[in-house]
Design goal:
0% strand, 6 helices, mainly alpha, 136 residues, flat
Amino acid sequence: MIAFLLSYKYYPLLGNGGVWTLGLSGILAAMLFAFLIEEYINAVRPTFIVEKIFTTIGLCSYSIYLFHQPLIGSIFKIIHKLGLPHQSSFDLSVGAIIVFIPILGFSWLAYKYLELSSVKVGQSWQKARLPKVQIK
């Protein structure tokens, strides 16, 4: 993004290389960030608590996607029945955190007991269906 903005500043869209320069700098920036992320992922280092939290959220992301819409409405109804403030600033800050915690918990349970179980069943079915190859 920085390379894109810099190239746009120094090379207007229609002159001095224009669109070609913008596209090339965007590709180079994407390659640089991909390289840096790859190096970070493969580096031998201790894992930090933040990485563990984001890994858990990443593993549960599909369950979060599936369950967030029905749970958000229900949880907000409960929050407002408890008499907590009904203001948009509260809903966007504290309310979002209060809503996210049960959604993450429910999604983690769904990941652990539904998704992983179905993956194991699929793997066992796949092993049963593969032809047995004998090596001489």
